[in-house]
Amino acid sequence: MGTFFQLVVNGLGKGAVYALLALGFVIIFKATEVINFAHGSLVLVGGYITVITVDDLGFVLAAALGIAAAGVAALLIERLLISRARNADDFALALLTIGVDVVIVEDVFRRLGTTVPYLGAPWDAAPITVAGVTLFRTQLVAMIVGLVLISAFFLAFKFTNWGIAMRAQAENREAAALMGIRSSRVTATAWLVAGALAGVAVLFIVTQDFSGTGLSRSTHAIAFAAFPAAVIGGLDSTAGAVVGGIVVGLTQALTEVYVSIPFAKVAVFLVMLLVLVIKPSGLFGTRELKRV
Amino acid sequence: MLTVDGLSVRYGRSVRALEEVNLEVAADGVLAVLGGNGAGKSTLLRAVSGTLALHRGTITAGEISFDGERIDKLDPALVVRRGVVGVPEGRQVFARMSVEENLRAGGLGAKTSGERTAARVRVRELFPVLAERADQRAGLLSGGEQQMLAIGRALMSGPRLLLLDEPSLGLAPQLVGRIASVIREIHAQGTAVVLVEQNATMALQVADYAVALEVGRVALSGPAPELAASDEVQHLYLGGHAESDEQAARDRQEAERHRSGRRLARWTA
């Protein structure tokens, strides 16, 4: 029972991180209809900036800088590439993001060379014991941070003018334009927010507790699990992204122990397939993914 | 107030939707734009609101100005800031958002919060039903209520010119009358209106000036009462006074003759 409790907490912690990534993914999809395959590279940008500044600035400032950098990187992708190809097909834009992903990923690893650095997160490798059960501190902090950020996002999405504009545009671009909603601003902020969330997520992924390795290609691979998370929840559902993230986190944590670590990676995609067979638009989505 | 001068619009590379259209809307006027399907009515409104690009359309010639300033190269949001707001065809309310949120979205285009408050009072008076249903999802409203919401939403930014694209489409006759009186009311409060309609009877009752588009060109124009009384309009847009199918068929033929006659006149002129 202790193990199970441990696994669930672990899974929820990981799930919170996946939820942050999947939420970013969904925000971008809702605002621009673009499936952003460059999301993993935003994670790396945030991580890289934190790594190179952490020695001089300390963790908190370096992390803030990393989050900002990931946000700005997303903003630049949108402003310099996506917004200039307004009439392009959605698939073309998805392919474009794959290209961007490759370029950013390779550049980050070229800069890192052979090092596989950690970000120096203060919560890493400092387990705490609750009622006789040992828990990863990273996952616990991730849960709290995830809860706070996701709640803040939903409140803003529901009640602020920004949220109204976002939802209006996601639902009907033309009607939103006729209301005087500035489509370019809505889109730009969507990418900025999504990038910043990726910058937060990396602070938890690159830890011994979460991935057991420093900033590396496996960080990118882990970040990619946000894609099935978003698909499971429904690509156009923000609430679905959170649920999908938690499903992915729990699936990984439980199958890693009860089946095997290699299987855990496959299990996430099996769950995704299962969801798609039963509900082609995801658990909470309204639009079916087109065949790519 | 609004001047459209020599406007030509194309969709894609080849589809010509408007050809050298000229028209003018007076500051206190209601202009009806009549015409059948594909005549270019919606295209005209899209060109004015700046949303052509969303339909892959481009202005190939001519210009549109509002209060003497050109607006044909502006972002749609900036056109709204100038005071020109459109109600799209088919209502297009934000179905998954509440009525209140729809109105808030409409208010995002207002320049000042004072303007927004005044607009809110106005919308509440025009459409009391919207206040009653504030928390309901817009998608659950009836067609007539959705049309009221679409108009109310557009009024939220305090426009000086309202563009209405077929507000009577798909509504019961009784509701069409209600929409007509709403348009009159909006006009009486000092907002100029461009009313695009297939329902010529309603449009000519509300408007003070009218133009008829035919395959992208202005075919007829004149004061609304004059047009309503003319034989051509009777036959082409008001369906004559047919008592039977036979009569209607004869009317159609008659109308066709009028058309070709007019074309000939134009050619020889």
Plain-language structure description:
Chain A is mainly α. Helices cover 74% and strands 2% of the residues of chain A. Chain A has helices spanning 2-32, 39-57, 59-82, 90-112, 137-159, 161-171, 173-178, 183-205, 217-224, 226-233, 238-258, 261-278; strands at residues 128-130, 133-135. A two-stranded antiparallel sheet of chain A has the order 1-2. In chain A, β1 and β2 (133-135) form a beta hairpin. The relative contact order of chain A is 0.20. The mean pLDDT of chain A is 92. Chain B has 11 helices and 10 strands. Chain B has helices at 41-49, 76-82, 99-107, 113-126, 128-132, 143-155, 173-188, 200-206, 224-229, 231-236, 245-268; strands at 2-11, 15-25, 30-34, 57-66, 69-70, 84-87, 161-165, 192-197, 209-214, 217-223. In chain B, the strands form 2 sheets. Chain B has a 6-stranded mixed β-sheet, with helices on both faces. A 4-stranded antiparallel β-sheet of chain B has the order 2-1-4-5, covered by helices on one side. The longest helix of chain B is centred in the last third of the chain and has 24 residues, at 245-268. Chain B is globular, with a radius of gyration of 19 Å. Classes of the chains: A mainly alpha (292), B alpha/beta (269). The A-B interface holds A 86-87, 161, 164-165, 167-168, 171-184 and B 49-51, 53-54, 56, 75-77, 80-81, 85-88, 92-97, 101, 104-106, 108-110, 153-154, 156-157.
